[in-house]
Amino acid sequence: MPAPARILIVEDKDSLRAMLRHALESQGHDVVEARDQVEAVQQLQESQPSLVLSDLRLPEGDGFGVLRAAKDIDADTPVIVMTAYGSIEDAVRAMKEGALDFLGKPVDPDHLLLLVHRALEQRRMATENLLMKEELAVRRGAPLIVGADASLRKVFASLERAATTDTTVLIEGESGTGKELFARSLHALSDRSAMPFVAINCAAIPETLLETELFGHEKGAFTGAVGRKLGKFEMAHRGTLFLDEIGDLPLSLQAKILRALEERRFERVGGTASVQVDVRLVAATNRGLRAQVAARRFREDLFFRLSVFPITVPPLRERKGDIAVLARYFVDRFCRDLKKKTLSISPEAQEHLERYHWPGNVRELQNCIERAVILSESETIQPRQLSLSFVEPSQNVPEAPDPWASFDLTGSLNEVARRGAAEAEKRKIQHVLKEVDQNKGRASEVLGVTYKAFLSKLKEHRID
Fold first, then answer.
1. Do domains 6-128 and 413-460 have the same CATH topology?
2. Domain boundaries defined on the chain
């Protein structure tokens, strides 16, 4: 019998709700109640139930809304829906949207307890499997990701789901957010964790060498190729290949990458024989790949192949609560590495850390703390050792100029509106032209106007 759990009952009929409560409490479960969708959402947020039992017909909202809210808060929460026998179609629809099971009315208490027992047992086993996998990952050297912000927890949840599949994952985020760290964690949690994790930075290798780095070469393929060389794809066989900064991948290589992903085979440079590989690809970028696609600097088919399961790592400035945790972690780590007595962070230094914008994200914070630990001559890190003298908001993040400061606001409201619309239209055209390298035909496609109309707009706004 699973351990007692907290169960949310969503039912507007008092008598049925009382019966359900009695049946569940007789098994030792903790029961919370709601009469409609609004109350249910509130209970989901406050009580964090292990299971939800909801009627599909409610006076305010419905069971589908409760189901979606439960899954938004915790995708693993099992939801059992209740419905009259004449509405089985609704129950089937609910299960397609993520409900675990359905219970017909009038409710049979024994059947109810059986479904609840089964749902809680499935959740318990899933949790235990995840914990075992995480423990195994730690033993195998999975990287430690520090932070408890809600946005970071969503990233963890996405990683855990993706780890159970071989789906290609695209990790997006600013420089310094730790995209490779997340890629390594994904590998460590996956069934491929015992096999190689191979990383390559597409922006750090000259275009002339990148193809041989990825796919290898045969002896004599070019001057200096004195022997066969295996590429990263072969080295990652049965493991994970991590392509960092894939937005910098040359167009000439993108077709070959796409083929290797789709067919799981390729030829080495200078070779004719196909090499078969079994590789799970994880890519990362700090660029907007959609804009790259619009500018024809990145293949659309490769973009869609890569972004099957996108994960966005939030910048440090959007998870302020993690700054203190990360700072403490880095202080302890560098004190150990430098064999220094453990240091504390003064309240003033902590305030500076939390007020700073961190454009370089976690990497910048790490470097800042390492420098402070080295410079510290006492037992406490002070603001001066952080080298963040520009920490004031007015100095830290330059205030953006007011775009309306020089705009002509004279005349009637209609006249000002016309001028504003014309200016916005002109800026949009200029922006798109820049994105597509001044290709007017492509720009007209992106803007959704005919080429003739686009040329007319260029003339109207005097854009060369």
1. no
2. 6-128, 150-312, 317-396, 413-460
Residue 187 in contact with residue 193, Cβ under 8 Å?
A: yes
In three-state secondary structure terms, 336 is helix
Assigned CATH for 150-312: 3.40.50.300
Report which secondary-structure segment, H or E, holds 263.
Answer: helix 251-263
CATH 3.90.550.10 fits 6-128, yes or no: no
Residue of 8, 16, 10 whose CA lies nearest to 106: 16
Q: What is the pTM of this model?
A: 0.55
Adjacent-strand bridge partners of 199: 242
DSSP 218: -
Reading the chain (464 residues) residue by residue, the pLDDT tens digits are 555 788 999 999 999 999 999 999 998 899 999 999 999 999 988 887 889 999 988 999 998 999 998 888 777 789 999 887 657 788 788 888 888 888 888 888 888 999 998 888 887 776 555 545 544 444 444 556 777 777 888 888 888 889 889 999 999 998 888 898 899 889 988 889 888 888 889 888 888 888 888 998 888 888 777 777 888 898 888 899 999 999 888 888 999 999 999 898 888 888 887 888 899 999 999 878 888 888 888 999 999 999 889 999 999 998 888 898 899 989 998 999 888 888 999 999 998 998 898 988 998 999 999 999 998 888 899 988 888 755 444 444 445 556 666 666 777 887 778 888 888 888 888 888 887 778 887 788 778 888 888 888 888 888 87
CA quadruple 146, 149, 153, 154: dihedral sign: negative
Q: How far is CA 275 from CA 167, 202, 211, 237, 281, in A?
A: 21, 22, 15, 11, 17
Given CA atoms 376, 379, 384, 386 in this order, what sign does their dihedral have? Answer: positive
Cα separation, 9 vs 40, in Å, equals 8
The fourth-level CATH superfamily of domain 413-460 is: Homeodomain-like (1.10.10.60)
The CATH code that applies to domain 317-396 is 1.10.8.60
Q: From CA 297, how far away is CA 291, in angstroms rounded?
A: 9
* Cα(414)–Cα(409) distance, integer angstroms: 11
Q: Distance between CA atoms of 17 and 59, rounded to whole angstroms?
A: 14
